[in-house]
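Continuing the series of single-chain predictions for the mutant panel. This is the parent chain; the variants come on the following pages.
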Amino acid sequence: MWRKLKNLGHFGLAILANIWYGFPSQKIKVIGITGTDGKTTTTHLIFAILTAAGKKASLISTIYAKIGSRVYDTGLHTTTPSYFLIQKLLREAVNRQEEYFVLETTSHSLDQKRVWGINYLVSVITNVTHEHLDYHLTYQNYLKTKANLLLNSQMALINRDDASYLLLKKILMAKKKQFLTYSLKQPADYSFNSKTILPELADFNNYNYLAAYSVCRYLGIKEKIIIDTFRQFTLPQGRLETVYDGDFKVIVDFAHTPNAIAVLLQFLRKKAKGRIIHVFGSAGLRDTTKRPEMGKASSQYSNVIILTEEDYRTEDPMIIAKSIASGINQKVHYQIILDRYEAIKKALQLAKKDDVVVITGKAHEKSLCRGKREYPWNDIEAVKRLITDLNL
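Parent structure:
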């Protein structure tokens, strides 16, 4: 009952925001991207392709919003901004006569009606894996919430290779919703293997590239423009980013779900000649059920695990770390160093020739939430500082 009352309040604010800014999404082509993992990379890929095709485009992603030539911070630990900020940015894009608006869209924003009133031309879902069950309670509820984006788009694109496919197909068909599919393994409306032009591309990113390819082909962008963009594209900040490449490597990535950790480390395991040293934690006051699964995923591919803080908020960080540790394979060595700076420092000190130090969970973010306060923090800058301090 309380959830329903809150959502009524959210709905009211969404209506006001649309009225205040004059329903701007009716005057621009909005592309929605949702999914558990890969949303940000897919969003930036679509934006890059549209720009390369000579289209005027804006975007909102986890990292920032870009309206014309102006870049905006959308807030701490936020992907889809508040009702009024979304509509304000849409209005600014319309005023600048932008043609497309690429919008990374989360399950929370869908459930809380933050994106109500937005007229989506096309939407795409990357995947649906274990995440946000503290909020949605069940995987089915989570998936149904994600499906709302597809149902409220003129055209929906879904990943036929993902475990969510059959459930999504059932939901869309029940509503008689038209949709298209993309796949690397099965017959589908769209299929393009980017590894034919980018052999070093990670398998998980291959699907993000395919999602972007599918959306842009649907929009009528020529394949040559898409492929040329793929060849030149640089992953967004904190996405499989190599921060140091000396005797050993240091890679920073945003992976913060069991699936994201598993596919990232599996890819790196194939490349690494030495050990994988993984530094990570899990956010406080968020999905607790995924923590042991994160530990299990890491221990499948890591040789050394260092558990640390990650926005623990008002939870006890030691309890969070122990919960992650409960899923770690007993054969894999792990230790707990709660101070994130000291944890990264320890990982760098342990690293030997050909090892890969992987730091996940924070990536591009600029703060750490400890208790009820935000403290300045950036994984990438921390690594660079330590590399200098340790004389590496």
